[in-house]
Design goal:
With 610 residues, the chain is of the alpha/beta class. It has 3 domains: 3-245, Glutamine Phosphoribosylpyrophosphate, subunit 1, domain 1 (4-Layer Sandwich); 253-440, Rossmann fold (3-Layer(aba) Sandwich), CATH 3.40.50.10490; 453-592, 3-Layer(aba) Sandwich (Rossmann fold). The structure holds 2-deoxy-2-amino glucitol-6-phosphate (AGP).
Length: 610
Amino acid sequence: MCGIVGYVGKRNAAEILIDGLKRLEYRGYDSAGLALKTDKGLLILKEVGKVADLERMLQDRAPVSNQGIGHTRWATHGGVTLANAHPHKDGSGRFAIVHNGIIENFMDLKEELERDGVVFISETDTEAIVHLIARFYSETGDILATLVALQKKLRGSFALAMIQQDFPDRIYCVRKGSPLVIGSGNGESFCASDVPAFLPYTRNIQYLDEGDIAEISLQGIKIWDENGEPSEKPVVTVDWDVTMTEKSGFSHYMLKEIHEQGMVLRSTLKGRTADGRISIDQELGWDAETVSRWDKIHIVACGTSYYASLVAERVLEKWTDFDIKVDVASEYRYRHIRCDSSTLAIFVSQSGETADTIAAQRKARSEGAHCMAITNVRGSTLAREVHSVMLLKAGPEIGVAATKTFTGQMAALFLVALQLGRLRGTLSPEEEERLINEFLQIPYKVELLLEREQEIRGLAMNYADKSNFLFIGRGISFPIALEGALKLKEISYIHAEAYAAGEMKHGPIALLEPEVPVVAVIPRDGLYEKTLSNIQEAKARNAPLIAICTEGDTHIAKYVQAVVEIPWTDEEFTPFLTVVPLQFLAFHIALLKGKEIDQPRNLAKSVTVE
Ligand code: AGP
């Protein structure tokens, strides 16, 4: 969590850093701060609250400076206070740093530094880092040697940017365990936790590896490895552009991202099918011989990415003959699930930086599994560590609640399932062609649904005052019920639970009463009749019912108060459609309740700590 940014160039650093921090605010929004290099030394400016609060404070005060670092915080060590806000300085005030990550041996380091007479003024682990930098620099007089020694001393994860009062036009960065990317423009250089921070100025990126140290300056970029040896990193031009990081006329990023889902599906599918056949052989580098070595598939993820994985599990069961296990990364990493060279382990993460997912991947890899990442972020830690990668083509997702990347993840997983089905011979060419033809129709069907936003807004108005919701679904609709409940709770703070509809009788039915709406995900599929029975059970307990059903289902209206119809599709593809009304429902309920939809309380977009 936390976002860091650094700039060296000829422009007004404060403006560029504030703009960058706003683009990184999805990573945390407890406090924000800048360190600017001025003729009179380092100027530190901080504010508790959002970047906009810091910007307001700066209006009359920011001196013109062409070099600085910035931070937006998601509190871990120490409360949300001004003293704990970054940047942090050493005792002399010559060094200032911003940090994303956690220093695990912070207490030992603090005690050691205090024994040497260092006085701490914050409760953060970050402050120990800046005092150590000052100490090593006074011992060596060499900044590279200092940063090499620093890495040996710190345990945990960190991405750092550091500015020093006496260093001409340069910032130093270190990356170990937390994301950090470098950008180079014309006579200016950037560093940040994520590319959108400097997308208005450059699309030329260098991705740092574990332990890398970088100097960004007016002259360009220098990179060393953790031992201080020079290291070459290719410059990659990213295909994201700045309009992708703007709201483009929408009131919220989340709303914009919901509306982008047809486009996301189209670009995720583009070039990956041809003439009714799946066409990702080269991208994944698998052939029939490769996949014959596997008999198990593990899919591991967190949150919404986990729910996309649960959808994929049901499809893989149908289209392939593997033994499949799906788990949340925070459990998987500590379990004793059999994993070996006959396992394909797929890690699904929008950000590619989720700490538990990365740790789970490292475990599976060490046990001999073939590891694959499905992620939206090229160059992310996860993408760089695995054997095979499939990138979503979703563009940056800024709303903390994932929407378009959920759709993109399901699409990518379906493509992998089709590929495995073909290579294993469990899907006939006719079946493959039939599925792909329907898959290619899904973006249009999603767009038809997106036009019905106002209808779902009307529904939201009827239910926004409720304090508890139950979501139910069966089969492939169960993970959609889970995702619908997650969306509602994370942005509206309404208590929502999701159950496999058949489980209702085993406990949750006790919750039902006229004040507890039940949202039933019930497309026309093989389990329709079964879910309908569960709806009747809920109706008998006087719970108000909303059904997400297939168009033309006149039967269901007898049992429910409201219906939202989705276009007809094959059972496997219904999740792409049933999730859309649930995203709109959560959004409009949260809007009616006046919540901060794009930045819900206590959450951060990428969870880079365990
Ligand atoms: C989704 O709305 C959540 N914000 C969250 O559950 C998220 O999906 C989870 O933290 C996983 O993130 P990742 O996909 O970047 O790994």
